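Example record

The entry below shows one chain as it appears in the dataset: sequence first, then C-alpha cells.
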Amino acid sequence: MTEVTDVIVVGGGLAGLVAATEIAEAGKRVIVVDQEGEQSLGGQAFWSFGGLFLVDSPEQRRLGIKDSFDLALQDWMGTAGFDRDDDHWPKRWAEAYVAFAAGEKRDWLRAMGHRIFPVVGWAERGGYDAMGHGNSVPRFHVTWGTGPGIVAPFELRAREAQKNGRLTFKFRHRVDTLMMTNGAVEGISGSVLEPDSVERGKSSSRKVIGDFTLRAQAVIVASGGIGGNHDMVRQNWPKRLGEPPKFMISGVPEHVDGRMIGITEAAGARLINRDRMWHYVEGIRNWNPIWPRHGIRILPGPSSMWFDATGKRLPVPLFPGSDTLGQLQYIMSTGYDYSWFILTQSIIKKEFALSGSEQNPDLTGKSWRMTIKRATNKGAPAPVEAFKQNGADFIVRDNLGDLVSAMNALAGNDLLEHDHIKAQIEARDREIANPYVKDAQVMNLHNARRYIGDKLIRTAKPHKILDPEHGPLIAVKLNILTRKTLGGFETDLDSRVFGTHGEIIGGLYAAGEAAGFGGGGMHGYRSLEGTFLGGCLFSGRNAGRAAAKAAS
C-alpha cells in the first residue's frame, strides 16, 4: 500500500531533523526517510566539533571582541568571492544567513536548551586585506556537548512529535526515485534495506528486502553531500585547485555518497556550483578508525611551521588556521598531495585540537573538570597524545637530523634535505627574540596572544623550535581530508528548488549540504567555519516552515 502524508523529508541529519520538527510543530504530518539505521540519527552533525558562527554574541562581548553585522558581512563576501551569474540566490542566502547569525540564531537555540562554551575560537584568520578572505575577529562558538549537543534539542523535539503521531521515522528506506507529475513532485519510491545494527558511522548492509512508495504534497531533500564518495569528489574537482589528490582520507562515513543528489538532478532539479567544495589539508589517518579511510582534522593553533612535500615553507599568509582553500591550492600546485607540520611538545600540548565529537570527550561529555585541564595539563589532551603515540602520521624525535630522516622514510622518498629544513627553522627562531619582527607568522603569533582566548588555550608562548627545553620535536604528515560540498541545488529563500529552465519545481525543497547550505552555495568558494551546522539549521528551518505552509 502507498502511504500518504503532508511532507516527506529525505535524510535524518541535522537539516532534515530541523525541517521535520518545524513541520510537525506547524501541525502537519511528516515522514523522515533515511537509508541508515536509527543509530545514525543526526548524520554528520553528530560527529562534528559543534562549531557555530555567531555575530556580536554575549560570549564575544565578554571577551572584549567587537563584532557587528556589517563586519561579518564584509568578511563573508570577501571570503565567498561570488563571481558567477549563478550566484544570485547564493548571495541572497549569504546575506540572510549572516543576519540570522547576528540576530535570532543564538536565542532560538538557547530556548531549546543549547549552550555554548565560553571561549570563542578564531578560525580561518585570513591574512590578506580587510576585504579579503577570513574572520576579522573570533566567531567560532563551540557547542557545549559538541556535535551531539547540537543534535540533541532537535532529536528531543522529533521524539515528542513522534509520540503525538505527527512525525514518523522510516529508517533503512533508500530513495531510488522522485515521483513527478506534470513537473511537480508527488512523492518518492525506493528500496527497503535489511535491518543492520552496525555501530554508528560504520558501513551498513545494502541488501534489499522490499520496496516502498510514499506520497506527499511536498518533499524536502536533505540528504547531505558527496565527501564519502572519492570518485565523485574527483569527478567534480575544480581545475583551479590543480589535479585531484591521488590519496585522500575521509572526514565523513561511506554513506555520504551523493546518491540522492543524482536522483534529484535526474528529476529535473538544477544543481549549481558543483565544483565548489571544502576539503581540509590537515588530515591525519585515524589510528582507531570507525569508517573506511577514516581521517581526523587537526584544528591547529598558529605556531607550527608548515612545509610542503619538498621541504619548502608554505608562503605568506598560509599559516596554520589562515586559509584552508589557499593552502589546498598551493599544496596541489607542488605536484604532491601532502605536506608537513614541524613543531614542539610545547606547541602540541597548547595548540593541537582534533575535530570531532569523539575526539573531545571533555567538551562532548560536558565535563568542566576535564575541560579546564586543557589549560593546565603538562601534556596534550589525551586524544592528541594517543595520536602522537599511535598515529601513522606522527613522528617524534629528539633532534632534527633524526626527525628529517624519519619524515623521508614515512613519505617513501628523499625529498627533504636536513640542511634546508634546518636553515628555515633557524631563521624563524632568530625572530623570536623580539616582539617586533619581519617574519609574518611570528607577527601572527604576537597578534593571536593579544586575544585572551588564544592566550589561555590556543597559542603557545613564542619559543624557538630547536630549543631542547620545549622538545621533543614532532613532525606530522598532513593528508587531504574530504569533507563538505559547497555547491548544491539552487533554491529561493523558502528553499524551493529551481528546475533546469529556471522554473520552481512544485513541491520540491532542498536543505543542508544538498542545497549548498542554502541557495545552491551560500559560502561561495570558501567558508568562514562554524557555518556548516549553521547552514543546516537555517536552511532546514526555512524549508520546514515553507513546506508546512504550502501543505494544505
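Notes for this example: The mean pLDDT is 96. Residues 38 and 171 are 6 Å apart (CA to CA).
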